[in-house]
């Protein structure tokens, strides 16, 4: 506690002086009180009477004067510590003290280090929000991913707000299924802050390139492990009021120990409850929820759950599930797969801005979901989960927490233990450039597409002639 | 847990303020206080919620523990802090608005830091007119300082304010015999005043301690009865820290009065600037490394400004 005293000594000299004066006063008072106590030691009642005004005096002191070194101690502990000269510190550390105070550690703040502390090994990818490369920290030899923030010195808005939000959110996150931001470093010229790099933990793969290259799809047990990790990472984010808003396979990283981590928080943001008005221009088209396509400006974590549904489908088939060419085409594909919304299944959808011009086939007999037929190898529980995630009505989608408790993960085949996960050749680690053919997340400030008049009535015209149900296939799990 | 904690200043950072070569402490304190007040005033004119302005205050305090105060004009550091916090938050403000607000607050037309006894100053729009070139150069400086602030703080802009905690604590304490509104208002007043304190309470104490100390002070002020036991321990604050904070929060008012009378009479005329500080230093005969005479105006900017003035003259005639 003595060190703490000196730490605050910069109140200015007068404050110190005043404290000194007060201290002397206190000292006198205390001596006086002690003297009085000695004289009247035998008389129990009178001693009590002498002690009583003291707390009252100290009460006013603590409010109006600087904190004195020797302080009143709480009434119930007074007898035990009446003669202690060290005040509260001794009381709090005393053996008879039972209260344990939580200490909150928030860390410290300091200047960014220089990017020169890292040695670049190879480029990994160039994305919409900057490029990523693999690098080694010189002092520790640890391999990391360096993600450069795209900055434009001519941009009069300053540092890009998406990148700043990503840093802010990643700094607050600490979960095994969310990529870890180790620090932020800057280029050597610090007179102008233009070169900003995020130092992220390095993972060997992203799910997209694995899916593209693997000769056989993931086993059911492996899909479960991946989905469980994805849901648990997302549940952490949603618990912390973070929407990711750009979940897709290329933003999910996987290391050689079977661990999946959510990455790329360029679109992410904090939301309140109820959510504020948000931009509908989020999430890469193929993973974008129908309420966003229909122009909702109030949405919630259910948009991330829709993306998980799309990823689920992609894990099963190795192909992105809903590859729309534009907003209208994407909606068409969604309705083809999931059926068309009705007043019962999604009561409020007609009130969404872009839903007014939509025309649907008059009878909804043959317009239900074909998810069951599209994934013949999936178990009933799996279909029920996928159906839930791909509910048109955001209210019907399970939350990440509910998803974790879904039957699908309890049934055989059980999720594969992460350590038993197969390994893949790492493109990121092998100095090879990866092509990207998923469309990018929409840019900030772009104009949201107006759907206008769209006719979906021909959508299910040939439905009856289609083959229903799956064939037969045998696979080891 | 991150919602309840803040990164705090290290003892070395606090000590650095006192080392040889830095400004005299009383000057630092005066600069700190007036700049924080300016930030608050700008926050009000920009119609920002206090939660944003308060964050700008905290960020500014942190920044000045890393970079020397004299490296930028104080008002512009304040503007950059507001710009930056508003930008990453839900309510961004246009640089143009920020420029206008600061131009007004620093002009002779605004009542900012003028003695309240005087009649409000005459509103003279010319005094806070900013030409396009002035605005452009102001904007560029704000962006440069923004980068500096991010760099100095390691891009860590996490700030947890004690205000919501204080409300929760008040509800938990349930001062039955007292009007909740008065007590809560007083508590928040203490928290907001603490933002201005040159003791940098928000950089040295966690939000829970700030909240408890503000409640303690408020309850004392309004005469609400507090629990007899060591209730602050329920909120994980020990008596030592509470005592320090209670004092720190209470001393701001007296300190400000004294400072404005004695150390910084200039503050009666408005916001202090780097030039004022240099004058005070010169009058006291103190030389500080790195603090030189006012920087010459950039020749190009000077030319642009002259041309603007010419244009204005031509328009008026």
Describe this structure in words.
The complex is a heterodimer of chains A (477) and B (317). Chain A has two domains: 118-201, 2-Layer Sandwich (Phosphorylase Kinase, domain 1), CATH 3.30.200; 206-465, Transferase(Phosphotransferase) domain 1 (Transferase(Phosphotransferase), domain 1), CATH 1.10.510.10. Chain A is 32% helix and 11% strand. Chain A has 15 helices and 13 strands. A six-stranded mixed sheet of chain A has the order 1-5-6-4-3-2, with helices on one face. In chain A, a hairpin with a 5-residue loop joins strand 9 (252-254) and strand 10 (260-262). In chain A, helix 9 (220-239) runs antiparallel to helix 11. The two termini of chain A are 62 Å apart. With 317 residues, chain B is an all-alpha fold. Chain B has a domain at 163-265: Cyclin A, domain 1 (Orthogonal Bundle), CATH 1.10.472. Chain B has helices at 11-16, 25-45, 50-66, 74-88, 95-105, 132-152, 163-173, 180-196, 201-204, 207-222, 239-263, 274-284, 299-316. The longest helix of chain B is centred in the C-terminal third of the chain and has 25 residues, at 239-263. Chain B starts with 10 loop residues before the first helix and ends with a helix. The chains are: A alpha+beta (477), B mainly alpha (317). Chains A and B meet through helix 1, helix 4, helix 6, helix 7 and strand 5 of A and helix 1, helix 2, helix 4, helix 6 and helix 10 of B.
């Amino acid at each position: 506690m003595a060190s703490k005293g000196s730490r605050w000594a910069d109140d200015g000299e007068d404050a110190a002086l005043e404290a000194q004066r007060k201290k002397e006063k206190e000292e006198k008072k205390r001596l006086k009180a002690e003297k009085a106590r000695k004289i009247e030691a035998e008389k129990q009642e009178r001693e009590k009477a002498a002690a009583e005004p003291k707390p009252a005096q100290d009460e006013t002191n603590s409010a109006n004067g600087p904190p004195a070194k020797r302080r009143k101690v709480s009434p119930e502990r007074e007898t035990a510590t009446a003669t202690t000269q060290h005040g509260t510190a001794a009381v709090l550390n005393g053996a008879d003290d039972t209260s344990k105070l939580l200490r909150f550690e928030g860390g410290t703040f300091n200047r960014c280090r220089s990017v020169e502390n890292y040695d670049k090994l190879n480029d990994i990818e160039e994305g919409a929000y900057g490029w990523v490369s693999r690098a080694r920290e010189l002092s520790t030899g640890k391999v990391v991913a360096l993600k450069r923030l795209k900055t434009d010195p001519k941009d009069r808005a300053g540092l890009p707000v998406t990148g700043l939000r990503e840093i802010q959110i990643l700094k607050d996150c600490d979960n095994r299924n969310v990529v870890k931001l180790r620090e932020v470093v800057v280029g050597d010229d610090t007179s102008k802050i233009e070169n900003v790099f995020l130092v992220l933990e390095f993972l060997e793969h992203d799910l997209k390139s694995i899916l593209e290259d693997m000769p056989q799809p993931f086993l059911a047990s492996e899909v479960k492990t991946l989905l469980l990790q994805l849901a648990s990472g997302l549940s952490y984010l949603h618990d912390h009021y973070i929407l990711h808003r750009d979940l897709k396979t290329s933003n999910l990283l996987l290391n050689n120990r079977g661990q999946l981590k959510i990455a790329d928080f360029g679109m992410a943001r904090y939301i309140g409850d109820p959510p504020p008005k948000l931009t509908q221009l989020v999430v890469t088209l193929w993973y974008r929820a129908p309420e966003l396509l229909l122009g909702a400006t109030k949405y919630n974590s259910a948009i991330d759950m829709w993306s998980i549904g799309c990823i689920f489908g992609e894990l099963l088939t190795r192909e992105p599930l809903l590859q729309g060419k534009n907003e209208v085409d994407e909606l068409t594909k969604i309705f083809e797969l999931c059926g068309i919304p009705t007043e019962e299944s999604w009561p409020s959808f007609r009130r969404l801005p872009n839903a007014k011009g939509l025309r649907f086939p008059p009878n909804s007999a043959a317009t239900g979901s074909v998810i069951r037929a599209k994934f013949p190898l999936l178990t009933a529980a799996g279909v029920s989960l996928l159906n839930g995630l791909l509910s048109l009505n955001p209210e019907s989608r399970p939350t990440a927490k509910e998803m974790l408790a879904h039957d699908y993960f309890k049934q055989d085949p059980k999720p594969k233990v992460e350590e038993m996960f197969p390994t893949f050749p790492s493109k990121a680690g092998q100095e090879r450039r990866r092509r990207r053919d998923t469309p990018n997340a929409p840019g900030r400030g772009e104009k949201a597409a107006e759907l206008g008049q769209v006719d979906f009535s021909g959508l299910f015209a040939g439905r009856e002639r289609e083959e229903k149900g799956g064939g037969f296939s045998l696979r080891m799990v | 847990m991150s919602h309840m904690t803040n990164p705090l200043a290290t003892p070395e950072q606090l000590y650095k303020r006192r080392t040889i070569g830095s400004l005299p402490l009383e000057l630092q304190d005066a600069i700190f206080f007036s700049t924080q007040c300016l930030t608050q005033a700008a926050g009000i004119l920009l119609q920002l919620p206090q939660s944003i302005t308060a964050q700008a205050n905290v960020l500014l305090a942190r920044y000045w523990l890393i970079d020397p105060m004299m490296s930028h004009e104080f008002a512009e550091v304040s503007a950059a802090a507001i710009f930056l916090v508003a930008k990453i938050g839900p309510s961004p403000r246009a640089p143009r608005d920020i420029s206008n607000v600061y131009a007004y607050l620093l002009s002779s037309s605004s009542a900012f830091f003028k003695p309240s006894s005087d009649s409000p100053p005459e509103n003279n729009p010319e005094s806070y007119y900013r030409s396009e070139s002035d605005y452009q150069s102001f904007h560029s400086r704000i962006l440069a300082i923004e980068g500096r602030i991010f760099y100095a703080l390691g891009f860590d802009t996490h700030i947890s304010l004690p205000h919501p905690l204080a409300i929760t604590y008040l509800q938990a304490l349930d001062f039955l015999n007292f009007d909740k509104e008065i007590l809560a208002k007083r508590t928040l007043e203490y928290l907001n005043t603490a933002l201005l304190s040159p003791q940098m309470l928000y950089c040295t104490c966690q939000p829970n301690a700030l909240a408890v100390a503000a409640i303690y002070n408020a309850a004392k002020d309004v005469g609400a009865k507090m629990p007899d036991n060591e209730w602050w321990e329920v909120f994980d604050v020990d008596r030592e820290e509470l005592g320090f904070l209670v004092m720190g929060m209470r001393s701001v008012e007296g300190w400000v009065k004294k400072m404005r009378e004695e150390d910084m009479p200039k503050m009666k005329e408005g916001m202090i600037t780097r030039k004022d500080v240099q004058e005070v230093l010169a009058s006291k005969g103190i030389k500080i490394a790195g603090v030189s005479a006012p920087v010459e105006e950039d020749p190009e900017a000077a030319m642009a400004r002259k041309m603007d003035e010419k244009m204005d003259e031509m328009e008026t005639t």
